[in-house]
Amino acid sequence: MSPALRCSNLTRRFAGVTAVNGASLEVESGTLLALLGPSGCGKTTLLRLIAGLDRPHAGTIEVDGRVVESAAMHVPPERREVGLVFQEYALFPHLSVEDNVAFGLSRGPNQAGRVEEMLGQVGLEGLGTRMPHELSGGQQQRVALARALAPGPRLIMLDEPFSNLDPALREGVRREVRRVLRGANATAIIVTHDQEEAMSLADEVAVMMDGRILQQVAPTELYRRPASRQVAEFVGDINVINGRAIGRAVVCDLGTISLLDDLYGPADVLIRPEALQLTEDQGGQAIQVGRSFYGHDQKINLRFDSGLRLSSRVGPTFVFRPGTRVRVQLSGDVLAFPSSGE
Ligand code: ATP
């Protein structure tokens, strides 16, 4: 079966900038995919190409196996069956909630029923006659979602859907959006530059940088086996140590550590802070020199006798004593990549 979406080698240039640079992406039907990348990496441009609002200089796009974009073909946005929810929701301010939701539906005997069904799915039953300005930000977003889902699109795309929301509301709204998309059995792309949001929300994460998709995998795989140092640094904190790899092991200031994959020569050894366990010990190899306390956990900064500085993420009950020695034990994944020379 064809994937719901297949983008192959898409490129879109603007004067002096290549916003999308040979990006390829596949989304299976029913998958919630987070498109994650730093500001300016080309996420919005890619969505606009998929929606048909803009045309690429090269590459092809298929929706459910049908070519909608190629050098010879451009299916207009309204015939792609792709829904798009903009960051600022873009509701029609002069139309009621139900008229907003009805907008993309053909008129007919089933229209009112479908509107009611959609309002029920997003938890807004009874609010159909309200105007958009009479709703909270989270409610407006649900109307935008209901409007995009109402025609039953093959793919729905949400551009930074949570960025306008108060951080305190964000997690609840995120869960709600996930529930609605799952309930509708939707195939969705959710754009975000927040790695925690991407990992907690999606079945798969596609990491985009400099106009390309660098890796597309499940969240746990992305965190544990990032494809490069650049990806590892973008998805969470990381310690980087210089080392020398000799096959399945690497020698560095922490000793000889085994690796998951073969590597030879100068290496960047990548260790997540939570993989470093600490025990207070006068014979330990490092001194505690600083800490950031977050409540659910804390990060302890360490200085080794060699001058190496690393940070360790430990539970909130660990007692931080500046200047005191600790034994540092490694428990968890260690990755190594050829040295970047930094
Ligand atoms: P953000 O997360 O900040 O919204 P993004 O990842 O969505 O960023 P894009 O908006 O796709 O990134 O922009 C990618 C690059 O293309 C940027 O350098 C941007 O300035 C440039 N760009 C986007 N649209 C245009 C345009 N219409 N004309 C010229 N340059 C553009």
What features would you highlight for this structure?
Rossmann fold; OB fold (Dihydrolipoamide Acetyltransferase, E2P); 22% helix; globular; 5-stranded antiparallel sheet; alpha+beta; binds adenosine-5'-triphosphate; single chain; 342 residues; 39% strand; 2 domains
Describe the structure.
With 342 residues, the protein is an alpha+beta fold. It folds into 2 domains: 230 residues, Rossmann fold (3-Layer(aba) Sandwich); 100 residues, OB fold (Dihydrolipoamide Acetyltransferase, E2P) (Beta Barrel), CATH 2.40.50. The protein is built from 8 helices and 19 strands. The strands form 4 sheets. Strands 7-8-9-3-10-11 form a 6-stranded mixed beta sheet, with helices on both faces. A 5-stranded antiparallel beta sheet has the order 2-1-4-5-6, with helices on one face. A 5-stranded antiparallel beta sheet has the order 14-18-15-16-17, with no helix packed on it. A hairpin with a 2-residue loop joins strand 10 and strand 11. Helix 3 packs across helix 4. It is globular and about 80 Å long. The chain starts with a strand and ends with a strand. The mean pLDDT is 92. It binds adenosine-5'-triphosphate. The site of adenosine-5'-triphosphate has 12 residues, from strand 2 and helix 1.
